[in-house]
Specification:
Number of strands of chain A: 0
Shape of chain A: globular
Number of helices of chain A: 7
Largest sheet of chain A: none
Number of domains of chain B: 1
Shape of chain B: globular
Helix content of chain A: over 70%
Oligomer: heterodimer
Order of helices and strands of chain B: HHHHHHHHH
Number of strands of chain B: 0
Strand content of chain B: under 5%
Largest interface: A-B, 31 and 31 residues
Strand content of chain A: under 5%
Structural class of chain B: mainly alpha
Chain lengths: 251, 224
């Protein structure tokens, strides 16, 4: 019923917690303040790993959806993984946008800039928000899994097109963006370590949350099945329905 | 050959229904024109703002109308169990997809023809190069119709059509809005060389989503 064995999941949970605490210590005190941006730059240690996890999560959703659609590997496991991962992806995309906004305010002077990466991330957020809305529509599990898998692949195919068109748009009509690669070239050793450690900590967090979300999905499905069985049982034991069509699931 | 014939049968059926019920002409088209009018209220019609942003407003209006057209395209299949008839007809699902998408595309193209007259008249736009405008509109419409039909059947199969289509469709077609708007801007400014790359992007989008729809439609219609 779970992706990971309970003992492994528990160990992973502790490892995640520990690494997040270590990340906070390094991010807040260990790493030196940035010369130009001072303390505001510390948001990078959360912002960049969150963005990384968001992309990872959407890639996992696409992969799991593909595995569901492929007849040889079709399994309810992949449908649940796709859903759980997309939810985490939307969550981390939201966190990325929020932190980027908080970071942008002191550094760029604005909450939002029409930069190619920002716009792509925002479109990504809404793409997968739509996918989650589709997932919430109830129905026959097989049919739901199929349409969600197809929707996930449609969305995934769109990502490069969105990215390409938005990049093109913003670079045709605007001077060089704030993301200048030369600015990032000189990065302090502790800063680089903290950033990479953040990516590691967030990856652990992602795997841990994915496992938890997967387990929750299994429990929810079990609950629905049990409630349905109980309802049918009560119906059968109580007054016999006059018309047997009554108990057939409505379409 | 038979794929094209079957697709034209389905497209003909949908267009005949539209010709008789006049929902596109009497409901979707006036809606589009009212939206153009509302844009003039929301923005300032006196200072040339409307003329500068006309391509964007035009394509936003087309997208909104496309939502209605897609909804309508699957509403006619929902009535009287028409979808079961379609499923049992023995037509190739790929042909059903192509036919329905083509019908939506034809409706949208007709709508765009009227709306562009509206934009020229109301927003005082002068057309520069005609070729990129027509080609861009055609490719963008094919892309929107293909994606819309794909999401239409996806939403129809889940039984939550009206509210689900916009939230699914609009983010996916956002590159179409972007590319069509830029292509038209360049064409109106009479620098067609700037609009061709965007038209290329529109062509890629149209081909990609028409292919995906042709492949995926069968299994989605099965569930619908």
């Amino acid at each position: 019923m779970t992706l990971l064995k309970p003992a492994v999941a528990r160990a992973l949970g502790w490892a995640t917690l520990t690494s997040l605490v270590v990340l906070s210590l390094f991010g807040l005190w260990g790493a030196p303040a940035d010369d130009v941006q001072s303390d505001a730059q510390r948001l990078m240690y959360l912002h960049v790993p969150a963005a990384w996890i968001a992309y990872l999560a959407f890639a996992v959703t696409a992969l799991a959806s593909g595995l569901w659609l492929w007849p040889r590997t079709r399994s309810i496991v992949w449908d649940r993984v796709a859903g759980a991962s997309a939810e985490l992806g939307v969550l981390f995309t939201g966190i990325t946008l929020l932190m980027g906004s908080l970071w942008g305010r002191p550094v760029w002077g604005v909450w939002w800039a029409w930069d190619a990466r920002l716009v792509t991330t925002a479109v990504l957020f809404f793409l997968y928000l739509g996918y989650l809305a589709l997932r919430r529509v109830p129905g026959n599990p097989e049919a739901r899994a199929r349409r969600c898998a197809i929707a996930a692949l449609i969305a995934f195919v769109d990502v490069p097109i969105v990215h390409f068109s938005v990049t093109w748009w913003r670079t045709l009509h605007q001077e060089a963006t704030v993301f200048d690669p030369e600015l990032k070239a000189n990065i302090h050793g502790v800063m680089a370590f903290t950033l990479w450690f953040g990516v590691l900590a967030f990856t652990l967090l992602y795997v841990y949350l994915l496992d938890r979300r997967y387990r929750l999905e299994c429990l929810q499905e079990g609950l629905e099945d049990r409630e349905l069985e109980r309802a049918i049982e009560e119906r059968v034991r109580g007054s016999q329905p006059k018309d047997p069509v009554d108990v057939a699931p409505g379409r | 050959m038979s794929l094209v014939r079957e697709a034209s049968l389905v497209a003909g059926k949908d267009l005949r229904i539209e010709a008789r019920s006049r929902v596109t002409a009497e409901q979707i088209l006036p809606f589009g024109l009212v939206v153009l009018l509302l844009f003039a209220f929301a923005l300032d019609p006196d200072r040339g703002v409307l003329r500068d942003v006309a391509p964007g407003l035009f394509w936003v209006t087309v997208l909104l109308a496309a939502l209605l057209a897609v909804s309508r395209s699957f509403a006619i299949e929902a009535a009287n169990g028409a979808r079961d008839g379609l499923r049992l007809s023995g037509l190739d699902p790929a042909a059903i997809f192509l036919g329905k998408a083509a019908a939506v595309a034809v409706e949208l193209l007709a709508l765009e023809a009227v709306l562009s007259v509206g934009v020229i008249v109301l927003f005082d736009v002068a057309l520069g190069s005609i070729a990129p405008i027509v080609l861009g509109a055609f490719l963008a419409t094919v892309g929107i119709a293909a994606t819309g039909t794909l999401y239409g059947v996806l939403a129809a199969s889940s039984g939550a059509r009206e509210t689900l289509v916009p939230v699914l469709l609009l983010p996916v077609v956002s590159p179409v809005l972007l590319a069509a708007t830029r292509a038209w801007e360049a064409a109106i400014d009479d620098v067609p060389s700037e609009s061709w790359p965007w038209i290329g992007l529109l062509a890629i989008f149209a081909v990609l989503y028409t292919s995906i729809g042709t492949l995926a439609f069968g299994s989605l219609l099965e569930e619908a």
